[in-house]
Amino acid sequence: MPSPTLDLAVPAPPPPAAAADAPAWMTVRSFLVFLAAMTILRVACLLITPLGLHPDEAQYWSWSRTIDWGYFSKPPLVAWTIAATTAVFGDAPWAVRLGAPFAHAGAAVALYALGRRLYGPAAGWWAGVGWLLIPGVWLSSALITTDALMLPLWSAALLCAWRWVETRGWTWALATGALVGAGALAKYAMLYFPLCLAVAAVLSPAVRQAVLSWQGAAAGAAAALALAPNLAWNAAHDFETVAHTAANADWRGDLLNLDQLGAFLGDQLGVAGAVAVLLVLVLWRLARGTAAFDDRARFLVAFVAPPLLLIITQALISRAHGNWAAAAYPAALVLTAGAFARGPALVRSTLIHAGLYAVFLALALAPAAAYRAPLLGRPIENGLKRMNAWPETADAIAARARAAAAAGAPYSAVLVDHRHMFNELQYQWRDDAGLPPLRMYVLRAGAGNQAEAAAPMTADVGARVLVVHMSPRYEAFVAGDFAAFATVERLDIPLGPRKTRPLAFSEASGFQPVARTPEFLARVGE
Fold it and tell me: Fewer CB within 10 Å: N-end or C-end of the chain?
């Protein structure tokens, strides 16, 4: 029901544009047909692609075996999603990833509805279709990641927030808060949303009235209630997820990194494609006053600018991955769709994105052929190396462990020195109970990742260890932690025509780790 404190002097948001602005073919039905076709295509590609799980996906899969309110480096929603899909379809890579394409389909529906509400049917159509075709969403629909789950919740919260501003309805206010809390269970970047809403309140009297009311307090309470179990889990685990997230910022070095800033800005073309260019044009027009900076534009800009500006600052201070500002792009899609719905710009950008997506699908479905492409083969091979040949790698290690057991000298553990190897072996050996326990080498004074925290090497399994090295520079440090140590074999696992995964196998016994003194850490490179 409407708030009893509604101030009629505050202007209401503009009504949706008339339906006449859309061509006849831009119907709800045509959008839903496109949405269904893209989702089916993406699921089919998950079934067909020969690419295995990325090590981070394998880590999320391992989390999903134990449902909890938090994990070492991420909130819990990605693990819960994998637990749900694998419970139904098994543990194949496609089943692990299955939540991603459906999540992005949900985001497209929310952005379609928001664009239609703000600027009319044509803008809604272009916003929904545009989301499905921007480069960052191709990749995010093919992998199970925290972004793939946060961005749909962000998009739905954006829609609910606007409807809350329009109607002053309690349902929309509570839904906004609940979605913000749920999104933070996917990725803490969702907590940019309250900041964006505060900026929108500064820019727009209509938003300000909604936020500075009992409804705003209730929305905040709903968000806090949804996030509270994860915060309690963090409190019980020394805030390890929060600490890991803060450590990613890495503000220890130089505080002016123009090269990192340039790389981040360039990466935005890889994330948003032509939409990044259109966004710059829209913002330029708004700044010059050649486009109307009405309540709709103010609302959307408030959800674009803060994530972009914060991560641009982070890139300048230290470093930033291209996807760290992904929260800016749901609103950016709607803003650009509203600005260009009646011109050729969106047609051209959609055709460009569709063509590039076809190339992306070819790479994912036939990477071996892509490796032979002139000029692009080497960077493609390098980009996909982390998802290649993990079954062969796991089989090579397992074969050596089984041979030792058959010879009457079984290993007490398999020790690896890289978290990617640990994550992948956990996944690849999930159905093999006959192998030695898997352990992770801890190089520094404390755990720096989930593998080091969950399965560190200990003396009770250190009697006779098969050590598998992926990091040659760590071999001497590993050797120093054992009473006896000998490298027995080196092996290259082919990843493509030019790339290999070099492994070294050692046998070690008598695990006696040296003290991680400041002098030791200085040698490591701390």
Answer: N
